[in-house]
Please model this.
Amino acid sequence: MSYETIRVWGVLLRLYHWALVISISALAVTGLYINSPWTGTTLEGVAAMPMLAMRNWHFLAACLFSGAVLVRIYLLLFGNRYERLGDLLPVTGRNLRNLFSTLLYYLYLNPNKEERMGHNVLAGMTYLLTLLVALFQVASGFFLRYAESAFWQGLGGAIFGSQQQARFVHHLLMWYFLLFALIHIYLVVWNEVKAPEGIISSIFSGRKFKERQH
Amino acid sequence: MADSDKGNNLGLSLNRRGFIKGCTMVAAAMGLSEAMIPRMVEAAASAKRPPVIWLHFQECTGCTESLLRSSHPDIGRLILEIISLDYHETVMAAAGYQAEKSLHDTLDQYAGKFLCVVEGAIPTKDKGIYCQIGGRPAMEILAEVAPKAAAVIAIGSCASYGGVQAAAPNPTGAVGVRDLVSTTPIINIPGCPPNPVSFMGTVLHYLTFKRLPPTDKLGRPLFAYGRRNHDHCERRAHFDEGRYVEQFGDHGHRNGYCLYKVGCKGPGTFANCPTARFNDVDVWPVSVGHGCIGCTEPNFWDTMTPFYERLPGVKLPGSPVTNVDSAGKTVLGLAAAAVGVHAVVGAVKRIAQCKCSSNSSEEEV
Ligand code: SF4
Model:
């Protein structure tokens, strides 16, 4: 059996992916510390400033995260055919069929993977939901960080109410990202084992394997 | 500052020295240059100062108490001296019909010119019958007085956002002034109670510049509510350094560490408590070892509780979930279990398949 490789993911999309990996890991760790600092310095005059440092790393990672989210939104509109909005949503007959065949495939009810180079539609919908959650996370984060700015006061106040309510939502949504990471990594490994397209290597190289038609 | 009036605390007259002192304190709290003080003094001493109608609704009178019984006699008397209180249910001498008459005289005579101060929330449920004065519901009185005023000052969290009365389930439908009045400029001085300096600053600003001071999106004057308590708290260095009170009474608490981990809401609360401070002993909750409870924020009774925890709780009856983190961990645990089951099913299927296919045809594998 011979294979050809197809270029699926552009450079920007791969950069976006790895920026998310790095920023979400950093944000979760520093965010958990900021919410409930598990260590500190009780010695006087040490000036180790752990909370200050954690907060600074959190804000730096937040900039990376926000930038990545913006890049993905750009790609939804102007990316290649596998990255665009139309390929992620069950808006065409082909996509709708793919949604059901993927569900059956994941539930072990259909042994054959439908050939499709981009995201399957189930994944596409999940990624869009994640992007939406990410927007709320970014808005609540900036509202908390720039609480004095009239712009964020207006927007954050309208969405979340007070600072404390935004803090609550911000913390709750963090758990969504951890849940997403768990399921995402599992399904990627699962797909890697089941099908020969090379899903893991594709996020490094941008290329997937496709069976050559004879 | 209390020294000038030792032994004379009950006298209501204010000497010039105390008068100027009071104005200076307020100017400092507002961040005005000292060159403004003479103008302020002049405006405050002017005979043409606007009359004030002070309405009391659903409240504990704590805001008035904290203003008038403030141990700064200068501030307390300044209030009585510079504003002509034509109607104030707590301190006015008139009663009954006399009081009502003075209210209506002011309304007629000074329409569009007087200041209306509202203290307390306004119940709206069942036509507002839960708070009535002289047989009239608070809603009706406010609807009569507020549109005729030059400006409305809502003093305290109740008049600003409904306060404790508006806490869930809000049995009387209590709301703040801004939910009912739209035609008159409104400024909110929230707090439970607010600092007298913030109220005085707003009044003096109005007398001096003939307009209300700039506000944030929640209608609070920026000079007093422009920054979070956390950002000018004296314990902030302990916060950055990771030195926290873990429990009331522990080593950290005795050493004045940051109260973040015992639920201080300073990081989400806009107020001037750490700088303006209260009473002549210059304290605020954090300075005496108790976290901020966020009383200047809308709905603080619902959103800032539990007062001794960082974040509000999440309760699902019959489950181990009590807060955000236990909710998150529970969901994550369930997802991990589901992933495990999915993987095992896949593996079993594969093994079964291999056995079958090796039995039938070896070619296919
Ligand atoms: S005591 Fe409260 S307001 Fe002060 S630094 Fe700590 S958390 Fe912030």
